[in-house]
Design a protein that fits this description.
Strand content: 15-25%
Shape: globular
Number of helices: 5
Number of strands: 10
Amino acid sequence: MARILITGFTPFDGREHNASWIAAKVLAEKHGTAHELRAQLIPVLWGAPFKVLDQLIREWRPHCVIGLGEGEPGVFRVETVAHNARKERADNDGVFPSGALIATAGPDDVQSSSDCAKLVTALTELDVPARLSDDAGAYLCEELLYTLETLKPEHSFLKQVLFVHLPPWQTALVYQQQNRRCDEALLFEFCELLLQSFFYDH
């Protein structure tokens, strides 16, 4: 049995819901595997990913962390690189980033430590609209992925990290050849496939 941490974000930009947190919660509650899953909510606040994850990873010692966020309609984007960059954009408290970098002494870019191409191939073979992405947005999703990839080498127990952008809540998409909405049922179906296609096949 392994410990798997699934993260999602609070709503932002005036939205009532964030698909990433709904997905994280429903997967942790209903996954039905032998693994121990835990969902963790991340505030859409500059600096929050490190503040939350640094302590949680050290204390809970997960073997795998899958970060989820909201991206664009119609597609699941698997992020392949984390850029050490923050765009000039206010967070949920109306605060702008204190600087242009996530980590002043960190590398400019960190390539994903996961086999993202293999994962996307597996998902597309299941008729899931997935693709690779090298632009996580320079907002809190970018910061979370950068945080995960820079924390991973510090903890030998942490074997895999990954970040996936989900379609926004209740947007339309074609999923497994059907016209669907990004609702709780679809998010659970996708996350189950994500676990099957990704987790510990490394």
